[in-house]
């Protein structure tokens, strides 16, 4: 039996994954965060797209290393001792969530987990590993990575919002130092990769449109309520995670960001 439940938060760059993962870590007892970005390959080995280093494709990630880390988490209930997180040094930006709301949700979760029903289905002593990654459910992701994730949640952001957020970032801490997106990076690299990897999940390949119900059924994808801003993620998904665990279901939950 796995010693941890792995919750995967994925979606396009700047859809709020890291912010949400840190909020959920504050809400759920015995929770910790694992970042897919900590499995980037060295910069000099990354492929190129349109003449630019491509940090946003499957080939940029050490998928074997990620799969090994997920296996370790399941077997031991902790982060691998060899993992040195660089992603935790990157800024996530203000969440916009009232600290009082986070505290209230945390209290509610602890209270529920202490009750008989909560103990049976949540197993409060069993850690919750929150995997934050831009590419967890894409077409080219290794099957072993996808099947290692117990609860799968896809965050969405439209092109305009994703572009605004990504271009507003100062840069990223990397293995070699620091990376700053060159001009046009979202249009030439980030967004095209997202569409290519995730188009199969949506009607007509329109990643800003409706989920493809046939694919949703095959992947056991079930849509969450449509939300209107990142600050609403925490209460919705905290409650949704409880429901999902309680129902002992596996699949992809999908939620919308403006």
UniProtKB/TrEMBL annotation:
The lineage of its organism: Eukaryota, Fungi, Dikarya, Ascomycota, Pezizomycotina. Keywords: Kinase, Transferase. The keyword Transferase applies. InterPro entries: P-loop_NTPase (IPR027417). This is Nicotinamide riboside kinase 1. SUPFAM superfamilies: P-loop containing nucleoside triphosphate hydrolases. It comes from the Eukaryota. Gene3D superfamilies: P-loop containing nucleotide triphosphate hydrolases (3.40.50.300). One of its GO terms (molecular function) is kinase activity. It comes from Lasallia pustulata.
């Amino acid at each position: 039996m796995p010693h941890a439940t792995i919750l995967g938060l994925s979606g396009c760059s700047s859809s709020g994954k890291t912010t949400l993962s840190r909020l959920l870590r504050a809400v759920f007892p015995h929770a910790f965060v694992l970042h897919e970005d900590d499995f980037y390959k060295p910069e000099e080995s990354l492929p190129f797209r349109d003449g630019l280093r491509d940090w946003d494709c499957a080939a940029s990630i050490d998928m074997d290393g990620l799969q090994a880390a997920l296996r370790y988490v399941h077997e031991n209930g902790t982060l691998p001792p060899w993992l040195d997180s660089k992603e935790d040094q990157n800024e996530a930006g203000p969440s916009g969530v009232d600290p009082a709301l986070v505290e209230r949700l945390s209290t509610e979760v602890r209270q529920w987990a202490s009750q008989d029903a909560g103990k049976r289905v949540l197993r409060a002593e069993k850690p919750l590993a929150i995997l934050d990654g831009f590419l967890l459910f894409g077409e080219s992701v290794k099957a072993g990575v996808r099947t290692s994730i117990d609860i799968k949640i896809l965050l969405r952001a439209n092109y305009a919002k994703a572009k605004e957020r990504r271009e507003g970032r100062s840069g990223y801490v990397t293995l070699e130092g620091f990376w700053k997106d060159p001009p046009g990076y979202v249009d030439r690299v980030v967004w095209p990769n997202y569409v290519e990897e995730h188009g199969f999940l949506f009607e007509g390949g329109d990643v800003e449109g409706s989920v493809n119900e046939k694919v949703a059924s095959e992947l056991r994808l079930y849509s969450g309520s449509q939300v209107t801003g990142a600050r609403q993620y925490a209460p919705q998904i905290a409650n949704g995670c409880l429901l999902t665990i309680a129902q002992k279901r596996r699949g992809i939950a999908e939620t919308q960001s403006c």
